[in-house]
Specification:
- The complex is a heterodimer of chains A (114) and B (113).
- Chain A is mainly beta and 114 residues long.
- Helices cover 0% and strands 54% of the residues of chain A.
- In chain A, strands 2, 4, 5, 6, 9, 10 and 11 form a 7-stranded mixed β-sheet that branches. Chain A has a 4-stranded antiparallel β-sheet with strand order 1-3-8-7, with no helix packed on it.
- The N and C termini of chain A lie far apart (36 Å).
- By secondary structure, chain B is mainly β.
- Chain B is globular, with a radius of gyration of 13 Å.
- The chains are: A mainly beta (114), B mainly beta (113).
Chain lengths: 114, 113
């Protein structure tokens, strides 16, 4: 089991550019979560999906953020246009429907917007 | 709404000393409770979890936690800290039947020689 896979691990971009973060959940997991972690705000849930359908996107900060899950093995988080305040570590996590709510986290993508 | 409070932002412990990290939660029913650890530059790793039954749960790396319903607490303990335990620790609560978790703000553990 490869665990949750995220790419890229590091991303440096300039303000105004589009940024796409990618996540592959653990096979068989029906739930996928996107989190953002900063020093100021800690770990924040941005959005989560169940069976590829967005369930709760109330944590998405602005319209500049969007997330998709076109199939059970792939999700993207897009920021367009990016701003320096978007600099953070973005984590993806997954969990199966039947189980004990344990979430399995990916290694994260460290985003720096200059 | 569920919430989790970790009152200690930083804790410094001498290597070999005992450790207790505090976690208080707010939830109407018995929740699922978790402790995760995050080493620098890494994702979050599950240390232990509680759902029901014995209120003292054992986890990986020699950690344990005790659920106290009367105090709405789920404190993490370790009898003897190792330098490799230096990391950030997150308590989380999840309502039974729902997959969403609410995380605390984390406690950063520093281990002094």
């Amino acid at each position: 089991d490869a665990g949750v896979i995220q790419s890229p691990r590091h991303e440096v971009t300039e303000m105004g550019q589009e940024v796409t973060l990618r996540c592959k959940p653990i096979s068989g997991h029906d739930y996928l979560f996107w989190y953002r972690q900063t020093m100021m705000r800690g770990l924040e849930l941005l959005i989560y999906f169940n069976n590829n359908v967005p369930i709760d996107d109330s944590g998405m900060p602005e319209d500049r953020f969007s997330a998709k899950m076109p199939n059970a093995s792939f999700s993207t988080l897009k920021i367009q246009p990016s701003e320096p305040r978007d600099s953070a570590v973005y984590f993806c996590a997954s969990t199966p429907t039947l189980g004990d709510n344990e979430q399995f986290f990916g290694p994260g993508t460290r985003l720096t917007v200059l | 709404a569920q919430s989790v409070t970790q009152p200690d932002i930083h804790i410094t412990v001498s290597e070999g000393a005992s450790l207790e990290l505090r976690c208080n939660y707010s939830y109407g029913a018995t929740p699922y409770l978790f402790w995760y650890v995050q080493s620098p530059g890494q994702g979050l790793q599950l240390l232990l979890k509680y759902f029901s039954g014995d209120t003292l749960v054992q986890g990986i790396k020699g950690f344990e936690a005790e659920f106290k319903r009367s105090q709405s607490s789920f404190n993490l303990r370790k009898p003897s800290v190792h330098w490799s335990d230096a990391a950030e620790y997150f308590c989380a609560v999840g309502p039974a039947g729902f997959q969403k978790l609410v995380f605390g703000t984390g406690t950063r553990l520093l281990v002094s020689p």
